Amino acid sequence: MPIYDQGYRRYEAREALRSVRFWPITREGLSLILAKRAFLLLFGVAWLPFVACVVWVLVVTKVPQFEAALPIDGRLFGQFLAMQGFWTLLLSVFGGAGLVANDLRTGAILVYLSRPLTRRDYVLGKLGVLMALNLGVTLLPGLLLYVVGLGLAPEQYLKWELWWIAPAIVAQASLMSLAISVVALAVSSLSRSARIAGLSFFGLVVGLDVARGILVNIVRAEWASVVSLQGNLEAVAVALFGIAGRRTAEPAWAAAVLALCIVASLLVLRSRVRAVEIVK
Length: 280
Known about the structure:
Layout: H1 23-34, H2 37-45, H3 48-62, H4 75-96, H5 98-106, H6 108-113, H7 119-135, H8 139-152, H9 154-157, H10 165-188, H11 194-217, H12 229-241, H13 251-272
Helix pairs in contact: 1-7, 3-8, 4-7, 4-10, 4-11, 4-12, 5-11, 7-10, 8-10, 10-11, 10-12, 10-13, 12-13
């Protein structure tokens, strides 16, 4: 009987699975991280500001005299998300520093891309790990705090003019999580050591924020806020919630710089995540 040469044919997933091929990477990454008790403890501590804000609302509703000193209008949620920025930084350092760095060190990235996975699937899978962690301490407690506010102080929040609070929480939490996660993943791809990647990311974010503080407070250059990732997120929060914070850049400029940081980080990931290893 004749023999037909079929050659190599790339495996294609079933149609229903093609759009979610990144999910096993995200699921496995989350299971490995959440299996660590120390990380679970850190995640739990990150919810303490939520508890403090609930107590804040409860005190104001029980003792109306405190409302002047502890207002519970829309600014409460902006201040809460600003506090959560520190925890997203720590979660990204301890949970995301090795996501790509360890794969580069062990060569696992070549195994991933030798399967029916594209570079986009790999990046989305790893990004999904950090996004889930960061949304877990920003979006989830933020919306839960809003629900608590509706229950404890309906006369304060059940107003038509405050309809924007929930969408603002979703927008700010999503932007915070996406910006921090993408930059952390890009820094992780630049090293083969999770420890070096984590320290580099932490030093980058904190160093730029210190530089922002020096330029704004000493040199009086408010435009310098755009050099800091946290400063740009704060500028957007000021625009969304009307909170009174440090002097910030124009929200439009801050949003543009954040978009530029996200695009630049994706370009870094595109150059570092590849199916072949180039040895010099």
